[in-house]
Structures are given as structure tokens and as C-alpha cells.
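Q: Predict the bound structure with adenosine-5'-triphosphate.
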Amino acid sequence: MTTTTTSLRSALRSLPDQAQEPTVNDLFVPTLLRELGFQQDEILSEYKTGNGTKAVDKAARKTIGDDIFIHTKTNPYLLVELKGRDINLSDEAVRYHHTVEQLKQYLLAPNCQTVEWGIITNSCHLQLFRKHGKVIFPATKCIELSEENIDEVIASVRKKIEKPAKALTIAVYNNKGGVGKTTTTVNLAGILAFLGKKVLTVDFDPNQQDLTNSLGLPLSPDHFYKALVERDVELRDIIYPYFFKKGNLEIRFDVIPADKRLAEEPEDKLRNHLKLNTLYRKLESLKQDYDYILIDSPPNWRVFSQLAVYAADAVLIPTKHNNLFSLENAATAIKNFIPEVQAAKLDGSPIALPIFFNGEKITPPQLAVAQQELINIIKTAKREKEKFNLLPYFYPKYTDARKDLHIHQVPSYANIASSAFARIPAVYRDRTAHEYYKNLAKEYFLQ
Ligand SMILES: Nc1ncnc2c1ncn2[C@@H]1O[C@H](COP(=O)(O)OP(=O)(O)OP(=O)(O)O)[C@@H](O)[C@H]1O
Ligand SMILES: [Mg+2]
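A: Predicted complex:
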């Protein structure tokens, strides 16, 4: 007996223009999931996420030996939140934003810890999201599906799902100087390595070279430069291990040190060799070797910061509560620079992570001043032409039901500042510093 299988094109063709969710579910989703590589016994409908009674439309995981998803109903790998064609999922639509929020909640729900991918689709539009630890970011733009592009789109989504990059790449950036970018990069790398993660840091501030110096590592004369501009030199060849040893404990994370030649070449000359995607492309071959790649960037929006942000999945933005410019610069990065880079990139990344306050003591009255300032910045952004909503980036825990104005803090602490002199990350020298950065890692990255 032969069974006929529907193609994606004919599934799409079979859908009425205003098909509602049940029709899309019947006529489109089985073919979609099959073409994404899942068999029937690898897919559950109405999967209970563990977030109250909420269920996601589809959950899927490939069978490993006799561990069959429809039997165990545990450890899904992919979630699909489905809508009907009567709901507009183009990325300017209100319902698009609601649906993305809905998917994010599912991805972070208790029964979905193992999930790495989420899809929203109504058969007219489709977008793929990646989850790495706590961080959720787009892995494709919101794509309008047509009979012409659907085979290609779904094939490329399948390719991503089948071979996910292991690493989350994070640029630590703020246009404002002295807010703790380098300190954050070093100590976050230190704590993630301590927690057993494989970490690479990149010193992409060649003029200051603070990250390299604070670890007591030698500068690169021109190796990093060559690895970026020459086809046959790889970043892998210029990685320097940083070791911390104490008794039986040995911790390692890797560093690409700052490069003198990158500092010496004039910017216009550099631009001839360095494209916006150069660092991104060169890092690609390292993404299966690390859990985290952290890039320290300089305090400006010039070539190195632009390449760092382009290379990133997510941008971590330290600020100071008592420095208005650090807050305004954070807003500019979130509403202008990062969207510019997103537009230039094919996959909709990077995303901005919510800001945090770094390295200053905060009294309640000072906090109130900072909150007022942030509210002004949010209001201004809402009134501007693009009507940008900064709220989730300043107050990620704020909802209509709970007006929570919590902003994460890494407190001011003398042993953090003095650690650079010892050439050892503060998290390895001091228990309090260790706790501060563990909290930062948990707040932003670790599930
Ligand atoms: N939590 C903290 N507690 C105490 N001091 C801190 C803290 N975080 C950073 N610092 C200190 O603040 C100063 C600036 O930090 P850092 O060099 O990391 O900032 P940066 O943003 O990288 O600066 P630049 O823009 O020049 O690259 C340093 O002297 C650092 O030791
Ligand atoms: Mg710095």
C-alpha cells in the first residue's frame, strides 16, 4: 500500500484565506512538523507547560532509543504556538507581540526546561526562536510564507533545529564609558566557568586592552587582526587559556586578547578589511566548542562595537543609576543601534537584555530619582516616531497586574575594583563578589 504525503505547498494551497486555528491545525501543521523532521509519535498536542493550566498547541521531541515523547510526555525540544489566519502575525501587528510573549512564557515554563526552540505560525507568517538557558532570541525574522518560499524556509528552519549552536554569544556594551563593561565580562566569564560552563571571552576594545590586562595576559601583536582579515587564519589558533588554580581546584576560561594592530590601524583603513559581519562569521566555527562567548566592547558606536553587537545573540548593558548619560546611552543602544544591526542581519538577532545597575551604592532617594529618569526616557521613546517601547528593557518584571520596578543590581564593592591589580577575577578571590556575579548569571542566563 502506498501512502501519499502532502507537500508544504499543497498544504498551504488547501487553506482558505480566513482559515481559523482548527483548520490550520488540521490542514497545515501535520505537514509542517513532518517537514521539520518529526514523526507522529514525536508530537503532542495541547502540551501542559506546567505554567498553571496553560497548554501550548504542539510540543515535539525526537525519539532516542525507547525514550518516546508521546509515552514519557517529558523533556520536549520544540514548541509551536499556533494561530488562525484570522490573527495577524506580521511583526508590526499587536497580536504578533502578544503571541511572542505567549511563546516566551511557555518556553520558560516548568515542563519546558529542555526546550531549545519555539515557533509561532498562522501559516501566513512563521518565526523561529531559540532558547539558551533563560535567554530567548529570534533565530529567523518573522517570515511571510508563500508557495514560492515555503520549501526553502522550512528546510532552513529544520537545519537550524537539527544543529543548534551550543554557544550563546553576548556583547557587553554601553556607549557610556566606565560603567563596568570590562568588569562584567571578566567576572561573568569567571563565574560561568566556575559553574562548569565552557567560556570564551573576546577583548574587542583594542585601544584600552583592559580585559587582557586585568587577566595579566600578553597582548596579541597582530594575530587577532590577521584572523579577522585573512581567510586562512582562524580565531581558534589565537585563543589563550586563562587558568585559576587553588589547591585541587582548577578553572579555565579562554581569551582572545586585545590586538595592537587593531588599535594602530586608522578606522577608515580598518573598514576596508572589516565588514559588519566579520567577527560574527569568524566566531561561527567556535560556537560548538563553548557554552558562552562574551565580547567586551569599547565605549563608542564605532567599528569594534558595531562588529561586536552584530556578532551577538544578546547584548548585556551595564548602567549606573546615578549617571543619566549611561541610562540615555542604554536607551539609544536599545531603540536605535541594536535595531539597526537587526535590520542588517538575516536572523532577527541580537536582542537587548534588560539593563542593570552596576557598581554604585544606591540609597532609596537616589533610586527614586533614577526611576523617575527612566520613566521620562520611556515616555519620550513612546512619543517618538518609531513609538519604541523601552519598558521591557528597563522594567522586565513590570506587568499591568504587578507594577514591579525591580532592576537588577551588582552593588559597589571595593574588592571588585581592586581585583584587576591582582590579575585575578574578583569572583575567584572574594566570596561576596562571587555571590554578586552568580546572582547576575542566574538573573540573566541560567535556568
Ligand atoms: N561592582 C563594582 N564595584 C566596584 N567597582 C567597580 C564595579 N564594577 C566596576 N567597577 C570599577 O569601575 C571602573 C570602571 O569599570 P570598567 O573598566 O569595567 O568599565 P568599562 O565600562 O569597561 O569602562 P570603559 O568604557 O573605559 O571600557 C573600574 O575601576 C572598575 O574596577
Ligand atoms: Mg572596558
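A: Residues 177-183, 205, 208, 210, 299, 358-359, 410, 412-413, 416-417, 420 surround adenosine-5'-triphosphate (ligand 1) (CB under 6 Å).
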